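Data availability (excerpt). The following record was deposited with the supplementary files.
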Amino acid sequence: MKLPIQDTEALSAISPSALSAVALTLGWSKVDTYGDNSDVYSGNDLPEIVIPRIKELGDYSTVVSRLVGIFAKVTDKHELAIYKDLSSVDQDVVRVRIPSGDDGTLAMDGGVKLFKDIRDLVLAAARSLKNPQPVYHGRADSDAANLLKRVRLGQTEQGSYVVTLLVKITPPPPQQELSLAIESNNIPIERQLTSHFAKSLKSVKAASAKYSNGDSNAFAEVMSEGVNWNLCNALDSLITPYSNLDISMNWARTFPAQEAWSSISFNESDAVNLREAAEQFKLINPESPTCFRGFVRQLKRNQDESDGNVQLVISDEGNQRIIRAKLNKNDYSKAIQAHQRNALVSITGNPQRSQTQWKILDAKIENFIQDDDEPSEETGISDLFTSSGIKEIWWDVFDICSRRAVNWATVRLTGDYERNSMLIKLK
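Predicted structure:
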C-alpha cells in the first residue's frame, strides 16, 4: 500500500529515534554501523534494514518512506497506521477521558471549560515539580510556564470524549546509550514533568481512599509528591460536571519509563474529598495578598450601601481575564475615578475562583496611574513605569495598549512612541 502522506516535510518530521524504537519493538536488533551516520539492523525472518542516526541526509524523507513500507509489510498494517505510530513513538501521551453523549460530542461551553481545567491540572504539576507547596498564588513562574509550553494538544479520540496531551521526549545523544542516561539520572525535563504528573495523580487517588477511611491527614502527607490546592481544585472541577474521570498515559518508546503506568479513575466521592482537601491546603498556607493590575470595566453599588462591586479587566499570562471585587467606600470612590480616567489600577487581595468566575476577597486599591502620568511623545514607556515602581514592562505595555484600544498585534517594540501610529519604544 502506498503512503497517503507524500510530502517530504511530513516524512522528515519522523525522528531517527522513532524509527529505531519501532524497529526494536518489531524484533530487529542493531548489529553494525553503516557509514558515519547510520546503523544496520537485522532480525529473525526479517529483512536487513539501515536506519539513519541523524536527519541531515539528502534523501532522509525517502529513507523514512521506505522503512514505513517495510514496517507495514511485516506487521500487515496500513502504511498510514505505521506513520501515525511513528509520529507519537517519541512522545509521552496523556489521555483524559470523560463521559459524553452517544455521539461522542460536548457542548461548546463545556468543551472550553474542559480544556481550561486540564491546563490548570498540568500547570499544578509543573509548579510543584521543583518546589512543592500547599497553594500556588498568582501567575506561574517562568520555569513552570515554559514547561507548560512543552505540552501539546493532540487530536481528540473516540470512546466517550478523550483529550490527548503530547509531550515530546528528547532522547539521549547518539553517543550515549539509553540505559546509561537512565542510570545517571540524566532524565529529560519533559519526562520529569510527565513522571511527576503521574506520581501526583497516583498519590492524590491513594490519599482520597485513605481520607474516606478516616485518615484526616492523608492529603497533607503527600504534599511533597505534588498534591496541592491547585491540583485538587482542578481535579474537582474536571470530575464534578461529568461524575467520572479517567486519566491514562503511554510512555515514549524512545525513552522507556522504569515503572509501568495504568489508568486512574476518579468519581464523585473523590470530588467531595478533593474539595475538602483543597480547604485543608488553604489552612496550611493562608493566602497572602496578591497584587493585580487592570482597568475598571463595571461599577455597581446599591443606593443604601456605601460599599460597591467592581469588575476589572486584568492581563493574566498574556490573556485578558475578568475579575470581580467588593470595595469599601473609600476604595470604591477611587475605582470611580479610575474608571472615569481610564486609569490603570493596582489592587491587592486574596483571589478565589468558583466554577465560573474569579473574585478578589479583602480587595484594596493601592494606586492608579493618573492622567498627569500619561507619557508625552518624548517619554519612553519604560521610564514611566520604572518611575511608578512597576518593573514588569512587557505586561505594562500590554495594559497601556488595552487602555488606548490599540490592536496588540500591530504593536512593535521598536521605533518611537507617537500618538498617531502608537509605536512603542522600550529603552
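Summary of structural features: Confidence is low (pLDDT under 50) at residues 371-395, 403-427.
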